[in-house]
Design brief:
globular, seven-stranded mixed beta sheet, DNA polymerase, domain 1, about 325 residues, about 40% helix, binds S-adenosylmethionine
Length: about 325
Protein backbone atom coordinates (compact mmCIF):
# COMPACT_ATOMS: atom_id res chain seq x y z
CA UNK A 1 0.00 0.00 0.00
CA UNK A 2 1.81 3.08 -1.19
CA UNK A 3 0.36 6.38 -2.26
CA UNK A 4 3.59 7.46 -3.92
CA UNK A 5 2.83 9.34 -7.13
CA UNK A 6 -0.87 9.75 -6.28
CA UNK A 7 -2.43 13.15 -5.68
CA UNK A 8 -5.56 14.59 -4.09
CA UNK A 9 -6.91 17.96 -5.19
CA UNK A 10 -8.22 19.73 -2.07
CA UNK A 11 -11.92 20.59 -2.35
CA UNK A 12 -13.18 24.15 -1.62
CA UNK A 13 -9.73 25.19 -0.40
CA UNK A 14 -10.30 28.94 -0.84
CA UNK A 15 -13.58 28.74 1.08
CA UNK A 16 -12.00 26.65 3.84
CA UNK A 17 -9.26 29.25 4.36
CA UNK A 18 -11.77 32.07 4.19
CA UNK A 19 -13.81 30.60 7.07
CA UNK A 20 -10.89 29.23 9.07
CA UNK A 21 -9.01 32.56 9.02
CA UNK A 22 -5.63 31.13 10.11
CA UNK A 23 -3.85 33.62 12.35
CA UNK A 24 -0.27 34.19 13.53
CA UNK A 25 0.59 31.95 16.47
CA UNK A 26 -2.64 29.95 16.15
CA UNK A 27 -2.98 26.19 16.64
CA UNK A 28 -5.03 24.29 14.06
CA UNK A 29 -6.27 20.74 13.59
CA UNK A 30 -6.66 19.29 10.11
CA UNK A 31 -8.67 16.24 11.16
CA UNK A 32 -8.61 14.58 7.72
CA UNK A 33 -5.04 15.19 6.62
CA UNK A 34 -5.10 13.05 3.41
CA UNK A 35 -2.45 14.43 1.07
CA UNK A 36 -2.19 17.52 3.27
CA UNK A 37 -3.75 20.07 0.91
CA UNK A 38 -5.46 22.01 3.71
CA UNK A 39 -2.58 21.68 6.20
CA UNK A 40 -0.11 22.96 3.66
CA UNK A 41 -2.29 25.94 2.72
CA UNK A 42 -2.90 26.85 6.39
CA UNK A 43 0.86 26.82 7.04
CA UNK A 44 1.44 29.01 3.97
CA UNK A 45 -1.23 31.51 5.10
CA UNK A 46 0.00 32.25 8.63
CA UNK A 47 2.89 31.45 10.89
CA UNK A 48 1.03 28.91 13.03
CA UNK A 49 1.02 25.27 14.16
CA UNK A 50 -0.96 22.52 12.45
CA UNK A 51 -1.70 19.04 13.79
CA UNK A 52 -2.82 16.76 10.98
CA UNK A 53 -4.93 13.75 11.98
CA UNK A 54 -5.60 10.76 9.74
CA UNK A 55 -6.50 7.16 10.44
CA UNK A 56 -4.93 5.97 7.19
CA UNK A 57 -1.26 5.05 7.79
CA UNK A 58 -0.63 5.49 4.03
CA UNK A 59 -0.70 9.30 4.33
CA UNK A 60 2.63 9.29 6.19
CA UNK A 61 4.55 10.04 2.97
CA UNK A 62 2.63 13.31 2.52
CA UNK A 63 3.14 14.16 6.19
CA UNK A 64 6.88 13.55 5.88
CA UNK A 65 7.10 15.96 2.95
CA UNK A 66 5.17 18.67 4.82
CA UNK A 67 7.17 18.10 7.98
CA UNK A 68 10.38 18.67 6.02
CA UNK A 69 9.06 22.06 4.92
CA UNK A 70 7.71 23.06 8.33
CA UNK A 71 9.61 20.97 10.89
CA UNK A 72 8.63 23.07 13.91
CA UNK A 73 5.04 23.76 12.92
CA UNK A 74 3.57 20.54 11.54
CA UNK A 75 2.96 17.12 13.08
CA UNK A 76 0.86 14.18 11.94
CA UNK A 77 -1.10 12.35 14.63
CA UNK A 78 -2.16 8.96 13.34
CA UNK A 79 -5.64 8.10 14.56
CA UNK A 80 -9.35 8.74 14.35
CA UNK A 81 -10.58 12.35 14.35
CA UNK A 82 -13.31 11.18 16.73
CA UNK A 83 -10.50 10.78 19.26
CA UNK A 84 -8.76 14.09 18.53
CA UNK A 85 -9.00 15.28 22.12
CA UNK A 86 -6.94 12.33 23.36
CA UNK A 87 -4.50 12.61 20.43
CA UNK A 88 -3.95 16.31 21.15
CA UNK A 89 -3.67 15.78 24.87
CA UNK A 90 -0.69 13.46 24.20
CA UNK A 91 0.91 16.58 22.65
CA UNK A 92 -0.08 18.67 25.71
CA UNK A 93 -2.66 20.58 23.68
CA UNK A 94 -6.02 21.25 25.32
CA UNK A 95 -7.33 24.11 23.18
CA UNK A 96 -7.07 25.10 19.53
CA UNK A 97 -7.97 28.04 17.28
CA UNK A 98 -9.48 26.10 14.42
CA UNK A 99 -10.55 22.66 13.32
CA UNK A 100 -11.19 21.59 9.74
CA UNK A 101 -12.64 18.30 8.51
CA UNK A 102 -12.95 17.13 4.91
CA UNK A 103 -14.91 13.96 5.42
CA UNK A 104 -14.85 10.86 3.26
CA UNK A 105 -12.33 9.06 1.09
CA UNK A 106 -9.29 10.53 -0.58
CA UNK A 107 -8.42 10.18 -4.26
CA UNK A 108 -5.43 8.08 -3.13
CA UNK A 109 -7.69 5.62 -1.34
CA UNK A 110 -9.93 5.33 -4.40
CA UNK A 111 -7.02 4.95 -6.79
CA UNK A 112 -5.02 2.36 -4.83
CA UNK A 113 -6.67 -0.94 -5.87
CA UNK A 114 -5.28 -2.84 -2.87
CA UNK A 115 -7.36 -0.66 -0.49
CA UNK A 116 -10.54 -2.08 -1.99
CA UNK A 117 -12.54 1.18 -2.05
CA UNK A 118 -13.06 1.32 -5.80
CA UNK A 119 -15.79 -0.41 -7.76
CA UNK A 120 -13.84 0.27 -10.95
CA UNK A 121 -10.46 -1.21 -10.05
CA UNK A 122 -10.00 -4.83 -9.08
CA UNK A 123 -8.77 -5.37 -5.55
CA UNK A 124 -9.47 -7.20 -2.31
CA UNK A 125 -12.84 -6.30 -0.79
CA UNK A 126 -11.38 -4.32 2.09
CA UNK A 127 -12.42 -0.60 2.47
CA UNK A 128 -10.98 -0.23 6.01
CA UNK A 129 -9.34 3.19 6.32
CA UNK A 130 -7.09 2.13 9.20
CA UNK A 131 -6.91 -1.57 8.31
CA UNK A 132 -8.47 -2.41 11.72
CA UNK A 133 -11.58 -4.48 12.41
CA UNK A 134 -13.94 -6.16 9.97
CA UNK A 135 -13.42 -5.57 6.27
CA UNK A 136 -16.05 -5.28 3.54
CA UNK A 137 -15.64 -8.94 2.58
CA UNK A 138 -16.64 -9.94 6.11
CA UNK A 139 -19.85 -7.89 5.89
CA UNK A 140 -20.97 -9.20 2.49
CA UNK A 141 -20.05 -12.82 3.26
CA UNK A 142 -21.40 -13.17 6.78
CA UNK A 143 -24.14 -10.63 7.52
CA UNK A 144 -27.81 -11.65 7.24
CA UNK A 145 -29.57 -10.57 4.04
CA UNK A 146 -31.82 -8.11 5.87
CA UNK A 147 -28.86 -6.53 7.66
CA UNK A 148 -27.01 -6.03 4.36
CA UNK A 149 -30.16 -4.49 2.88
CA UNK A 150 -30.46 -2.15 5.88
CA UNK A 151 -26.84 -1.01 5.56
CA UNK A 152 -27.24 -0.29 1.82
CA UNK A 153 -30.46 1.62 2.40
CA UNK A 154 -29.45 3.54 5.51
CA UNK A 155 -25.94 4.60 4.55
CA UNK A 156 -26.24 4.63 0.76
CA UNK A 157 -29.87 5.60 0.21
CA UNK A 158 -29.94 2.63 -2.18
CA UNK A 159 -33.54 2.02 -3.21
CA UNK A 160 -32.76 -1.40 -4.63
CA UNK A 161 -31.12 -2.47 -1.36
CA UNK A 162 -33.25 -5.60 -0.99
CA UNK A 163 -32.63 -6.85 -4.53
CA UNK A 164 -28.92 -6.25 -4.11
CA UNK A 165 -28.75 -7.95 -0.69
CA UNK A 166 -30.63 -10.93 -2.14
CA UNK A 167 -28.19 -11.19 -5.06
CA UNK A 168 -25.22 -10.98 -2.68
CA UNK A 169 -26.54 -13.79 -0.51
CA UNK A 170 -27.26 -15.93 -3.58
CA UNK A 171 -23.79 -15.35 -5.02
CA UNK A 172 -21.94 -16.05 -1.77
CA UNK A 173 -23.71 -19.41 -1.44
CA UNK A 174 -21.75 -20.46 -4.56
CA UNK A 175 -18.43 -19.06 -3.37
CA UNK A 176 -17.24 -16.25 -1.08
CA UNK A 177 -17.16 -12.77 -2.61
CA UNK A 178 -13.60 -11.51 -2.19
CA UNK A 179 -12.90 -8.94 -4.94
CA UNK A 180 -14.25 -5.44 -5.53
CA UNK A 181 -15.16 -6.10 -9.17
CA UNK A 182 -17.00 -9.31 -8.23
CA UNK A 183 -19.20 -7.34 -5.85
CA UNK A 184 -19.67 -4.55 -8.40
CA UNK A 185 -20.84 -7.13 -10.99
CA UNK A 186 -23.27 -8.76 -8.56
CA UNK A 187 -24.76 -5.34 -7.78
CA UNK A 188 -24.97 -4.44 -11.46
CA UNK A 189 -26.81 -7.66 -12.27
CA UNK A 190 -29.24 -7.13 -9.37
CA UNK A 191 -30.40 -3.59 -10.11
CA UNK A 192 -33.26 -3.12 -12.51
CA UNK A 193 -32.15 -1.57 -15.74
CA UNK A 194 -33.08 2.04 -15.85
CA UNK A 195 -31.25 5.15 -16.78
CA UNK A 196 -28.24 5.11 -14.47
CA UNK A 197 -26.37 8.38 -14.37
CA UNK A 198 -23.90 6.86 -11.93
CA UNK A 199 -22.33 3.42 -11.71
CA UNK A 200 -24.95 1.10 -10.11
CA UNK A 201 -22.40 0.08 -7.45
CA UNK A 202 -21.76 3.67 -6.26
CA UNK A 203 -24.30 3.80 -3.43
CA UNK A 204 -23.67 0.28 -2.15
CA UNK A 205 -19.90 0.78 -1.99
CA UNK A 206 -20.39 4.09 -0.22
CA UNK A 207 -22.80 2.50 2.27
CA UNK A 208 -20.49 -0.40 3.14
CA UNK A 209 -17.55 2.01 3.53
CA UNK A 210 -19.46 4.33 5.87
CA UNK A 211 -20.71 1.37 7.88
CA UNK A 212 -17.41 -0.45 8.40
CA UNK A 213 -15.45 2.70 9.17
CA UNK A 214 -18.18 3.94 11.58
CA UNK A 215 -17.91 7.29 9.85
CA UNK A 216 -21.02 8.90 11.31
CA UNK A 217 -20.08 7.91 14.83
CA UNK A 218 -16.61 9.44 14.43
CA UNK A 219 -18.17 12.65 13.12
CA UNK A 220 -20.49 12.95 16.12
CA UNK A 221 -17.57 12.48 18.54
CA UNK A 222 -15.54 15.05 16.59
CA UNK A 223 -18.31 17.67 16.73
CA UNK A 224 -18.60 17.31 20.48
CA UNK A 225 -14.81 17.37 20.91
CA UNK A 226 -14.61 20.54 18.79
CA UNK A 227 -17.00 22.30 21.14
CA UNK A 228 -14.67 21.56 24.07
CA UNK A 229 -11.38 22.17 22.26
CA UNK A 230 -12.04 25.42 20.42
CA UNK A 231 -11.07 28.67 22.12
CA UNK A 232 -13.60 31.55 22.02
CA UNK A 233 -13.67 32.88 18.40
CA UNK A 234 -12.07 29.59 17.24
CA UNK A 235 -13.44 28.28 13.94
CA UNK A 236 -14.96 24.95 12.95
CA UNK A 237 -15.08 24.27 9.20
CA UNK A 238 -16.51 21.02 7.83
CA UNK A 239 -16.71 19.86 4.23
CA UNK A 240 -18.87 16.78 3.71
CA UNK A 241 -19.98 14.80 0.67
CA UNK A 242 -22.86 12.75 1.97
CA UNK A 243 -26.37 13.75 2.96
CA UNK A 244 -26.23 11.99 6.35
CA UNK A 245 -22.93 13.65 7.26
CA UNK A 246 -24.14 17.09 6.29
CA UNK A 247 -27.37 16.50 8.21
CA UNK A 248 -25.37 15.57 11.33
CA UNK A 249 -23.23 18.74 11.06
CA UNK A 250 -26.26 20.93 10.35
CA UNK A 251 -28.22 19.50 13.25
CA UNK A 252 -25.32 19.85 15.73
CA UNK A 253 -24.55 23.43 14.71
CA UNK A 254 -28.23 24.46 14.70
CA UNK A 255 -28.60 23.03 18.17
CA UNK A 256 -25.46 24.63 19.56
CA UNK A 257 -26.13 28.01 17.96
CA UNK A 258 -29.63 28.16 19.40
CA UNK A 259 -31.27 27.93 15.98
CA UNK A 260 -33.35 24.87 16.81
CA UNK A 261 -36.63 26.19 18.07
CA UNK A 262 -38.24 22.77 18.33
CA UNK A 263 -41.64 24.44 18.56
CA UNK A 264 -41.52 24.97 22.33
CA UNK A 265 -44.71 26.38 23.69
CA UNK A 266 -44.86 29.29 26.15
CA UNK A 267 -47.23 27.14 28.19
CA UNK A 268 -44.59 24.48 28.74
CA UNK A 269 -41.86 24.78 31.37
CA UNK A 270 -38.44 25.76 30.00
CA UNK A 271 -36.05 22.85 29.50
CA UNK A 272 -32.29 22.94 30.09
CA UNK A 273 -31.95 23.07 26.29
CA UNK A 274 -34.01 26.29 26.09
CA UNK A 275 -31.76 28.08 28.57
CA UNK A 276 -28.42 26.79 27.29
CA UNK A 277 -26.20 29.58 25.96
CA UNK A 278 -25.12 29.09 22.33
CA UNK A 279 -21.58 27.69 22.12
CA UNK A 280 -21.37 28.36 18.37
CA UNK A 281 -22.31 31.19 16.03
CA UNK A 282 -23.03 30.12 12.44
CA UNK A 283 -20.74 31.79 9.90
CA UNK A 284 -23.16 31.06 7.07
CA UNK A 285 -26.82 30.28 7.49
CA UNK A 286 -26.83 27.77 4.62
CA UNK A 287 -24.35 25.19 3.42
CA UNK A 288 -21.74 26.75 1.13
CA UNK A 289 -21.37 24.96 -2.22
CA UNK A 290 -18.36 24.76 -4.55
CA UNK A 291 -18.23 27.16 -7.48
CA UNK A 292 -19.28 25.96 -10.94
CA UNK A 293 -15.71 26.41 -12.02
CA UNK A 294 -14.40 24.12 -9.29
CA UNK A 295 -16.95 21.42 -10.12
CA UNK A 296 -15.93 21.66 -13.79
CA UNK A 297 -12.25 21.28 -13.03
CA UNK A 298 -12.61 18.82 -10.13
CA UNK A 299 -15.73 16.65 -10.47
CA UNK A 300 -15.07 15.15 -6.99
CA UNK A 301 -16.20 18.51 -5.61
CA UNK A 302 -19.70 18.24 -7.06
CA UNK A 303 -21.44 16.92 -3.93
CA UNK A 304 -19.39 18.93 -1.41
CA UNK A 305 -21.12 21.06 1.22
CA UNK A 306 -19.26 23.32 3.60
CA UNK A 307 -20.57 24.47 6.97
CA UNK A 308 -18.66 26.80 9.26
CA UNK A 309 -19.17 28.18 12.74
CA UNK A 310 -17.31 30.24 15.32
CA UNK A 311 -16.99 29.21 18.96
CA UNK A 312 -18.58 31.69 21.33
CA UNK A 313 -17.43 32.52 24.87
CA UNK A 314 -20.14 30.34 26.44
CA UNK A 315 -18.97 27.40 28.47
CA UNK A 316 -19.93 23.89 27.42
CA UNK A 317 -22.69 22.68 29.68
CA UNK A 318 -23.00 19.06 30.70
CA UNK A 319 -25.54 17.26 28.49
C1 LIG B 1 -11.20 13.64 1.54
S1 LIG B 1 -9.69 13.11 2.25
C2 LIG B 1 -8.96 14.58 2.85
C3 LIG B 1 -8.09 15.26 1.83
C4 LIG B 1 -7.35 16.46 2.39
N1 LIG B 1 -8.23 17.54 2.77
C5 LIG B 1 -6.35 16.97 1.35
O1 LIG B 1 -6.43 18.15 0.96
O2 LIG B 1 -5.50 16.21 0.93
C6 LIG B 1 -10.25 12.37 3.71
C7 LIG B 1 -9.15 11.80 4.59
O3 LIG B 1 -9.69 11.66 5.89
C8 LIG B 1 -9.33 10.44 6.44
N2 LIG B 1 -10.39 10.07 7.38
C9 LIG B 1 -11.67 9.76 7.11
N3 LIG B 1 -12.34 9.51 8.24
C10 LIG B 1 -11.44 9.70 9.26
C11 LIG B 1 -11.53 9.62 10.68
N4 LIG B 1 -12.67 9.28 11.29
N5 LIG B 1 -10.44 9.91 11.40
C12 LIG B 1 -9.28 10.26 10.79
N6 LIG B 1 -9.12 10.34 9.46
C13 LIG B 1 -10.20 10.06 8.70
C14 LIG B 1 -9.19 9.50 5.28
O4 LIG B 1 -8.29 8.45 5.59
C15 LIG B 1 -8.65 10.42 4.19
O5 LIG B 1 -7.25 10.40 4.15
Amino acid sequence: MSYEGLVHTPVMLAEVLNYLQPKQGGVYVDGTFGAGGYSSAILETASCKVFGVDRDPGVQIFANALHQKHPADFKLLEGNFGEMEALLSEQNISSVDGIVLDIGVSSMQLEAPDRGFSFQLDGPLDMRMDKQGSDAAYIVNSFAEKDIANILFTFGGERESRHIAHAIVKARAEKPITRTLELADIIKSAVRHGKHTINPATKSFQAIRIYINRELEALQYALEAAERLLTPTGKLVIVSFHELEDAAVKSFLSDRSGKKTGGTSRHLPQTAEDTRKPTFKLLSSKAVLPSENEVRTNPRARSAKLRAAERTYAEVEAA
